[in-house]
């Protein structure tokens, strides 16, 4: 269990803590939840950097890191839907793309292939995290202009999410063809 993997586990452990504070449905709870979300998001960037720079990429990290990311993002999206910050269909597009790409990666892994994160996928992650943070800030400070920024950032996030999903499937169509 190297440092990168410990950070991944920490991110997973922060998800229920995030949910507890957001469930308080108070300005203070939401601010604390937002800080927890930001810290958890930072661990995503940090664990990948540490694993690559120290040449400590493990099977555990390859599997658990994306899972930790999906748990964090999904929990925040569902919270934003529950609080009427975003529409349910928006969250479903993002979550469905995550399941679809995970399925594609699993299919590739069954053939001994690894589908690395693409630039679109990396951009998608950053934009989703920024959009979620803006949405969480809006929960604490429900200002009209902040709602507009939330809506725009979520809209951009959905577009980049769709583009990155199509990109993965187009670039990896051979994985689907070989598994008929």
Automatic annotation (TrEMBL):
Catalysed reactions, semicolon-separated: a CDP-1,2-diacyl-sn-glycerol + sn-glycerol 3-phosphate = a 1,2-diacyl-sn-glycero-3-phospho-(1'-sn-glycero-3'-phosphate) + CMP + H(+)
Principal cellular location given in the protein's record: membrane
Keyword terms: Lipid biosynthesis, Lipid metabolism, Membrane, Phospholipid biosynthesis, Phospholipid metabolism, Transferase, Transmembrane, Transmembrane helix
Topology of the protein relative to the lipid bilayer: Multi-pass membrane protein
PROSITE patterns: CDP_ALCOHOL_P_TRANSF (PS00379)
Membrane-spanning parts: 12-40, 86-104, 125-146, 152-170
Pathway(s) this gene product operates in, as recorded in its UniProt entry: Phospholipid metabolism; phosphatidylglycerol biosynthesis; phosphatidylglycerol from CDP-diacylglycerol: step 1/2
Entry-linked Pfam families: CDP-OH_P_transf (PF01066)
E.C. no: 2.7.8.5
An annotated Gene Ontology molecular function: CDP-diacylglycerol-glycerol-3-phosphate 3-phosphatidyltransferase activity
Subcellular location: Membrane
Protein family according to the UniProt entry: Belongs to the CDP-alcohol phosphatidyltransferase class-I family.
Physiological role: This protein catalyzes the committed step to the synthesis of the acidic phospholipids.
Classification via NCBIfam families: pgsA
Protein name (Swiss-Prot/TrEMBL): CDP-diacylglycerol--glycerol-3-phosphate 3-phosphatidyltransferase
Species per Swiss-Prot/TrEMBL record: Clostridium punense
């Amino acid at each position: 269990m190297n440092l990168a993997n410990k950070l991944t586990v920490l991110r997973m452990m922060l998800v229920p803590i995030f949910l507890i504070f957001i469930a308080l449905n108070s300005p203070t709870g939401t601010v604390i939840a937002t800080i927890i979300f930001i810290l958890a998001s930072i661990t995503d960037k940090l664990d990948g950097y540490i694993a690559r720079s120290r040449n400590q990429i493990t099977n555990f990290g390859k599997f658990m890191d994306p899972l930790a990311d999906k748990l964090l993002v999904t929990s925040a999206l569902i919270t934003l839907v529950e609080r009427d910050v975003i529409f349910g269909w928006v969250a479903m597009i993002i979550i469905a793309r995550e399941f679809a790409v995970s399925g594609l990666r699993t299919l590739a892994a069954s053939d001994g292939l690894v589908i690395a994160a693409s630039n679109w996928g990396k951009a998608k992650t950053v934009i989703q995290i920024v959009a979620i943070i803006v949405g969480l800030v809006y929960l604490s400070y429900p200002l009209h202009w902040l709602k507009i920024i939330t809506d725009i950032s979520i809209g951009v996030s959905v577009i980049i999410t769709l583009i990155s999903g199509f990109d993965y499937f187009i670039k990896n169509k051979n994985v689907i063809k070989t598994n008929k």
